[in-house]
Specification:
The structure is a single chain. With 115 residues, the chain is of the alpha+beta class. The chain has one domain: TATA-Binding Protein. The protein is built from 2 helices and 8 strands. A hairpin with a 2-residue loop joins strand 2 and strand 3. The longest helix is centred in the middle third of the chain and has 11 residues.
Length: 115
């Protein structure tokens, strides 16, 4: 599936409960306290948001969809744990927030809106 050029987006982050965020020189930085269950994270992206994985480069799995793109950030420990998910919402991000709230992933993770 070719990557298509998209317009402006609204960012959202998903990380394990208790994680902290800080705005650094390179953008938002995350200090995860735990990992997300990989199966639940992937199911949320693929089954709920209807995204398709297009590549995996340096521990970041890129997903694309019609109104949302995502980057699944894997741990650097070689165990392929999920540190966080970075979402780019090209439509109404409230829809993604509602889908998150009603899904199993919300039991393990928090949604962070930097705006």
């Amino acid at each position: 599936m070719p990557l298509k050029h998209k317009k402006k987006y609204k960012p959202l982050f998903i990380a394990a409960r208790g994680s902290t965020y800080s705005l650094g020189d390179d953008g938002w930085e995350l200090d995860p306290k735990n990992y997300l269950p990989k199966g639940i994270a992937v199911a949320f992206l693929e089954d709920i948001l209807a995204l398709n994985a297009v590549n995996n480069v340096c521990g970041i799995v890129k997903y694309v969809g019609d109104s949302v793109d995502a980057s699944l950030i894997l741990s650097e420990d070689g165990l392929q744990n999920v540190e966080s998910i970075y979402l780019q919402c090209f439509g109404d991000k409230k829809i993604v927030e509602q889908q998150f709230s009603g899904n199993t992933i919300s039991q393990y993770a928090e949604l962070f809106d930097p705006e």
